[in-house]
Fold this sequence. Notes:
Number of strands: 8
Structural class: alpha+beta
Oligomer: single chain
Number of helices: 8
Distance between the termini: 37 Å
Helix content: 25-40%
Amino acid sequence: MxxxxxxxxxxxxxxxxAGPGAGAGSVVEAGSxxxxxxxxxxxxxxxxxxxxxxxxxxxxxxxxxxxxxxxVASDGVGxxxxxxxxxxxxxxxxxxELPLDVDERLATLxxxxxxxxxxxVRVHRVSVASEGFDARFSALSRxxxxxxxxxxxxxxxxxxxxxxxxxxxxxxxxMNAAAERLLGEHDFAAFCKKREGAxxxxxxxxxxxxxxxxxxxxxxxxxxxxxxxxVRALVGALLAVGDGRRPVAWPGQVLxxxxxxxxxxxxxxxxxxxxxxxxxxVEELAVRAAATRRVRTL
Length: 298
């Protein structure tokens, strides 16, 4: 599966449109084709890439009259003048070129988007968003991956845009022991860039490192939501534990402090990849959005 780095997300920040056919556990997947291969969106929810603002619906403009509607004069009584009639005929001919069925029109839109989007953004399916859907607030969870190489000679140059090289060896067990102390619902103010009027209370559901066969270290981070810079700040704290500069207990102590710690260095953006967004069943989308908008307290 491809991935969309945080740098790309900041460059094309926007929302995804979801369709009314979304079911429980529906998935939205994002990807950067240029960097890591083509992406196939799973489940009945659509990933349209970061092209439109959150909550917007991607579609085509619609005329004010159906094809074949009688043309009337400007006074609404008699037949239209010749010029108006010619314009109406031309308009009807143009309308006939577009499929009138909604599904056909959406399929046409997918092809047209492929022709106008940059090569590292692809839309595989488009559907009509249900009332109350919000790409940001209706989500149940987000999953990120962060990739690090600690190879002595440096990282693979072919993956330099998606893998961060760390110039010290990393202790996988120490990083996972430190990560376990961060799980659950907490105020993550110590790992977030504060925004006026926004809460920093989040539920961190998963934070786990694995070392792949090629030696690459990958952190999987799942939460109901993330505040600004949260994932990269968590990764930066765990890297300091992994290379021995900080003890295992240190990230948990920083979390308990609930204030931004200058000792936490935010990890580079290009190692971060948004891999999945999960939504509830379609009938629960509006309720979920309303609940998410409430300011949480502990």
